[in-house]
Design goal:
Number of strands: 0
Radius of gyration: 16 Å
Order of helices and strands: HHHH
Distance between the termini: 17 Å
Number of helices: 4
Shape: flat
Oligomer: single chain
């Protein structure tokens, strides 16, 4: 068993929690205020896609002998996550002309769902 397997599994479960929470939010917004649905979808994917890429990039390597590569992967993943997030926000506001509140609101909900999932899943295991 790889040292990164536990972290990798925890990250997968966190991403699943983000997806479920975002889908519930999208359905609620679609029922209550349908004109903001696209903005909520964009806000959700603005967090989920870069964070998923970061999780994948971070858990590629594990072990004491690869500590330099692990740290390098973490740094690279963080930089790529920042660039992807910036691109998604720039696209949402410049090309798609979405309302800022639903985009940022969905982004924050996805981020908080990941935090709460990590706390809950780490206590559970």
């Amino acid at each position: 068993m790889n040292l990164a397997d536990k972290g990798r599994q925890l990250a997968k479960r966190g991403i699943i929690a983000q997806l479920i929470t975002s889908l519930v939010l999208i359905v609620i917004v679609f029922c209550v205020k349908p004109d903001h649905t696209v903005a909520v979808i964009i806000g959700s994917i603005t967090f989920i896609i870069p964070h998923s890429f970061f999780a994948y990039w971070t858990f590629r390597y594990a072990g004491a002998t690869k500590s330099r590569i692990v740290a390098q992967s973490f740094n690279q993943g963080l930089k790529i996550k920042l660039v992807l997030t910036t691109v998604f926000f720039a696209t949402a506001f410049s090309l798609l002309n979405t309302a800022p509140f639903p985009v940022f609101g969905a982004y924050v909900v996805a981020m908080l769902s990941q935090w709460f999932a990590m706390v809950w899943l780490s206590r559970k295991s």
